[in-house]
Automatic annotation (TrEMBL):
It is found in: Cell membrane. Its main location: membrane. Keywords: Cell membrane, Membrane, Transmembrane, Transmembrane helix. This is ABC transporter permease. The chain crosses the membrane at residues 20-41, 299-320, 345-372, 392-419, 440-463, 697-719, 746-765, 780-800. It is a multi-pass membrane protein. InterPro entries: ABC3_permease_C, MacB_PCD, Macrolide_Exporter_MacB. Residues 304-419, 700-810 form the ABC3 transporter permease C-terminal domain. Residues 21-255, 452-638 form the MacB-like periplasmic core domain.
């Protein structure tokens, strides 16, 4: 029986292969989108799910409230771990570790007579003890989790790092070897573990014994202080079954109050939270360890896009199938006359739908690698499409095929199997159906398609408009033709910076130089508490700090509103403040702040000038209170303003070449790296640019599928009205009048879709713009452009079939009357 269904279905599809191909393309697009987004969602939602008892693992994170601002920190105070292990009950394990900020240089001793092999910019280095390996599951290839990190300077490597540092040696031979870390630590390899193959945020590859931090040279300055929280100092706990996180949080808060020294000048409030392991990969407030964070609302939005595209494909199938029903009416009538039951016909039509869906699925499997490659900038590097390695994909595809078969095929199967044989054989299957419930359902489905398509168009235009606004808004500083380089943080020769600066001053393509900490806008922030006293009141604020020489505000074109510029000094002796901070201090005019004193770094320092506000970070964030001071011993970034390009466009290339040559003369062992300031600004909006790319892709697909659906409805209508059109032509109607008559009804559907889509899009766009402190407006022309685009595309689609119907010979259409 099933063989008969399959053979019949294949014959029918081959006979109507044009319609079949249109259906396959529409479904393949929806299934491809669903598969790609499933891969992305599956990748992110499965982070660290492999950990044993992961639902009982939490990270202890810190929160502070000060000056009506809430601050989050993923770390804890240095002595917290030991106190938690000693004083708090209900914990199965306490796991502290400390990340090593910045790149690490690894030196591997060479054989006799050979130089050491140097690996620069090594990441994923962490100080940990044996408890770490009880929390995170590793397979040990050499060494023991109980003893490998027992003593200072003992080190464990992942298999990939062992092969990198000691090529040609098996893991057992690596034990006992030494490596040098930043020329300060001589580490002995005591163990090798297999790299974690599952999705995990714990991407560390070099583990140094936690007890190494107790050594004189590496011991952090705040090691015994309860008043200083460091984001590098991480603390994880595993709760006993039945213990609630709120119980542990309460105990940790009490513990902190017990040991924290009383400071009357500290007006902040602090509290701790237990962050679930499942939240680490998604929570931007606390961050993770190198892997890009995922955003749950974005993932849910992508899943919604996949559902919409899949729904569009199904609607398209329904419209095309029912539109083509007239071609199969007699076949159905004969089948029923010969004894086929309605159930058998339903199974037959569902079989055809399943075969179409299966072909579309195979096509989508072929398209998926191409889509992943096209969106490689948005797709994580370690996300791969591999049916063998991920059998869950096959299960997903099978379930998707069944779902699409039911969504797409059930309604057409019910309609087609419901034809009455007597009416069919008399060519009256469609009599009186132009205003039936089925007709309105098809029109409703078409309206739904265009609602989705128009929302996509409007969203795409708005996102592009916001990105353009963000990149071109005056942020209060100059960003073009400026690059900066970072000198070596560990360089102990103070004169090197001055020597390098002098060499740069000799380069004619450079217009100006400034030694500073960070450019005006940067993801790296430095803030601290500053107090202002005017005799009557005391204002304590958390203020961002930037350091630069006297050229800093000149190079970046920061506007000086009052007072004078700071002078280049070895230590901070005077301050510039921004407008926002001046207003917080109670000054209505910038000049009123000049000459006042702030308590800064335990010293009273004068305010010598006020600069206009500028955005210290992306437009997502509001302007914060800020001070600018000169402190040459702490400034290691060199900002370089270049002269404008010449006609041949070689000025900047020549300048960079000369800067690199000067760098190698001063820092021969360090790699030369530079960053253009305006490119860094553009990176703030990478997520929005990725979203714009995805929306353009989704919009194009939605329009394409919607037009296929519209084409199906046009075919259905013109088929029904063939004889009416013939009569009208005989009575003198022109081709233009007939095209207008047919198109009018469909344009009404497009306009109706616009009326529904506009308010929905307006609400969604305003909600999205709330993520930006500085944002563009939802302009009226966005809706006008979207509606115009959709009407033009609809007219082009209608023209394909309406012109054909209007120019047909009326004799042929009336021959059967």
């Amino acid at each position: 029986m099933f063989k008969s269904y399959a053979v019949t279905a294949i014959r029918s599809l081959w006979k109507n292969r044009i319609f079949a191909m249109i259906n396959i393309i529409g479904l393949a697009i929806g299934i491809s989108a669903s598969l790609v987004i499933y891969l992305l969602a599956h990748y992110h939602f499965n982070f660290d799910k492999f950990e044993k008892d992961s639902d009982r693992v939490y990270r202890v994170v810190s929160n502070f409230s000060f000056s009506n601002e809430v601050y989050h920190n993923s770390g804890v105070t240095d002595p917290m771990a030991a106190a938690v292990r000693k004083d708090i009950t209900g914990l199965e394990s306490v796991v502290p570790f400390r990340t090593w900020n910045g790149d690490v240089k690894v030196g591997v001793p060479g054989a006799a007579g050979k130089e050491n092999t140097i690996f620069k910019h090594e990441e994923h280095v962490v100080f940990a003890d044996s408890n770490y390996f009880s929390l995170i599951s590793y397979r040990w290839l050499a060494g023991s989790p109980k003893t490998s990190l027992r003593n200072p300077y003992q080190t464990v490597l992942t298999e990939s790092n062992a092969k990198l540092y000691f090529p040609g040696l098996n893991v057992s031979a690596v034990i006992g070897k030494e490596i040098y870390l930043n020329d300060t630590i001589v580490a002995t390899i005591a163990g090798v573990v297999e790299d974690i193959k599952e999705n995990t945020d714990f991407s560390f590859k070099t583990f140094i014994a936690y007890s190494t931090l107790e050594s004189t040279s590496l011991k952090p300055s705040n090691w015994d202080q309860w008043s200083s929280t460091n984001g590098a100092q991480q603390l994880y706990v595993k709760l006993y079954p039945g213990v609630k996180p709120t119980q542990i949080q309460k105990q940790i808060d009490q513990l902190y109050k017990k040991y924290k020294p009383n400071d009357p000048s500290d007006h902040s409030t602090s509290w701790y939270l237990l962050q679930p392991l499942s939240d680490v990969h998604f929570n931007a407030d606390y961050g993770t360890y190198g892997k890009p964070l995922a955003n749950k609302p974005t993932l849910y939005g992508l899943l919604a896009v996949a559902a919409f595209l899949l729904l569009l494909g199904c609607i398209n199938f329904i419209n095309l199938t029912t539109a083509h029903a007239s071609q199969r009416a007699k076949e159905i009538g004969i089948r029923k006359t010969m004894g086929s039951s309605r159930k058998q016909l339903i199974v037959q039509f569902l079989s055809e739908t399943f075969i179409l869906t299966a072909i579309a699925t195979l096509l989508s499997v072929g398209l998926t690698p191409l889509i992943l490659k096209a969106f490689s900038g948005f797709i994580p590097k370690d996300l791969h499409f591999n049916l063998v390695a991920h059998p869950g994909i096959l299960v997903f595809l099978l379930l998707l095929m069944m779902l699409v078969t039911l969504l797409s095929g059930f309604y057409p199967a019910i309609v087609l199997s419901g034809y009455k044989p007597v009416l069919v054989l008399k060519n009256q299957a469609y009599s009186g159906t132009s205003k039936t419930r089925a007709s309105w359902l098809r029109k409703s489905l078409t309206v739904s398609q265009f609602v989705i398509a128009q929302i996509f168009i409007m969203a795409t235009i708005l996102v592009s408009k916001q990105i353009n606004y963000s990149l071109n808004k005056d942020m209060g500083f100059k960003k073009d033709a400026i690059l900066y380089v970072q000198t070596n943080f560990y360089d102990t020769v103070r004169s090197n910076k001055a020597v390098f600066m002098n060499k740069l001053r000799e380069i004619p393509e450079i217009a100006m130089l400034s030694m500073c900490t960070n450019p005006p806008s940067s993801n790296s922030t430095w803030s601290g508490t500053i107090t202002y006293k005017d005799g009557k009141k005391e204002i304590e604020s958390d203020v961002q700090q930037k350091y630069g020489d006297s050229n800093y505000i000149r190079l970046y074109h920061l506007q000086l509103l009052a007072g004078k510029n700071i002078q280049t000094t070895d230590t901070a002796v005077a301050l510039l403040i921004n407008e926002t901070y001046a207003h917080i201090l109670g000054f209505n005019k910038p000049a009123e702040a000049v000459g006042k004193y702030l308590q800064f770094n335990d010293k009273q320092m004068p305010i010598v000038g006020v600069v206009a506000d500028f955005n210290q970070m992306s437009l997502h964030q509001p302007v914060k209170p800020l001070v600018i001071a000169s402190w040459s011993t702490n400034e290691r970034n060199i900002s370089i303003a270049l002269h404008p390009q010449n006609e041949s466009g070689t000025v900047w290339k020549t300048a960079i070449s000369k800067i690199e040559k000067a760098w190698k003369e001063v820092y021969p062992n360090d790699d030369f790296e530079y960053h253009f300031f305006d490119e860094d600004i553009a990176k703030y909006y990478t997520q929005e640019q990725n979203m714009s790319g995805l929306l353009k892709w989704a919009t194009g697909l939605a329009i394409f599928i919607s037009c296929l659906g519209l084409l199906g409805l046009v075919i259905f209508t013109t088929t029904q009205r063939t004889k009416e059109i013939g009569v009208r032509k005989v009575l003198g109607a022109s081709v233009a009048q007939i095209i207008s008559m047919i198109s009018k009804d469909f344009l009404v559907l497009v306009v109706l879709a616009f009326v529904i889509a506009a308010p929905l899009a307006w609400l969604g766009m305003n909600k999205w713009l709330e993520n930006f402190a500085y944002r563009t407006s939802v302009s009226w022309w966005i809706f006008l452009v979207s509606g115009t685009i959709m009407i033009v595309i609809a007219l082009l689609t209608l023209g394909i079939q309406t012109v054909k119907a209007a120019t047909a010979n009326p004799v042929k259409s009336l021959r059967t009357e």
